[in-house]
Amino acid sequence: LKYFREEYRRHIEDKRCDAFVCKNLVGAPCQAACPVDTEPWRYVALIEKGQYEQAYQIIREANPLPAISARVCDRKCEHRCSLGVGGGEAIAVRAMKRFVTDRVDPAVYHPDMHSANGQGKKVAVVGAGPAGLAAAHGLSLLGHKVTIIEAEQEPGGMLACSLPAYRLPRRIVRAEIATLMNENIRLQHGVVLGKDATIRELFAEGFKAIFLAMGAHESWRL
């Protein structure tokens, strides 16, 4: 393809229409706009009925860090909300998500942890930011043994070292990360890739795969 190659690929491989014109792919615009495919229309309806725990479970099924995104998400769902696009005011989806995550104990959500039946692999994740934590959590639920190596003394990446505490309280970050930890995840602090460990050394230790999620920290001009 000479033109629109990426757009074509998104339709075929990702089943996404970034122009929001293909009704068979878009469905609910708010859900289609969400990078993690959350279903705002479902949990908003549950909130309206007062079913907050059920709403939390819908949010958490798609999003491993719901309390964090309820504070710092850029609200793509609201930009595509049918009410807002039609000339009215969009539903305050992020605020409603925060309403739920502030009131519901994360313990109500019980993710399915599959048994690997001896087929689980050792996986190393470099970086304990959002990407690394989400990858480690997902792999652990599939039965793999995951070791996260983190250069800093606290997990969270940019959530902990960049976003100001008045915008994203540190207690929220720590509590959210704690909900992702389980017996299949081990976290090592103060380990710098290229200095304290190398890719070759990690493979030599028996890791079958390595997920690089060390980020690309760089200051932006105001």
What does this molecule look like?
The protein is an alpha/beta fold. Helix content is 42%, strand content 9%. It is built from 13 helices and 4 strands. It has helices at 5-12, 23-26, 29-33, 40-48, 52-62, 66-72, 76-79, 82-85, 93-101, 130-141, 158-161, 170-180, 199-204, and strands at residues 122-126, 145-150, 185-189, 209-212. A 4-stranded parallel β-sheet has the order 3-2-1-4. Helix 4 packs antiparallel against helix 5, helix 4 crosses helix 9 and helix 6 runs antiparallel to helix 9. The longest helix is centred in the middle third of the chain and has 12 residues, at 130-141. It is globular. The protein starts with a helix and ends in a 10-residue tail after the last strand.
Record field, number of beta strands: 4
Low-confidence stretches: none
Q: Main sheet?
A: 4 strands, parallel
Helical segment count: 13
Distance between the termini: 39 Å
Measured on Cα atoms, how large is the radius of gyration?
19 Å
SSE string, helices as H and strands as E: HHHHHHHHHEHEHHEHE
Strand content: 5-15%
- The helix content, as a percent range, equals 40-55%
The backbone outline, from C-alpha atoms, is globular
Secondary structure category:
alpha/beta
Strand order of the largest sheet: 3-2-1-4
Mean pLDDT: 91
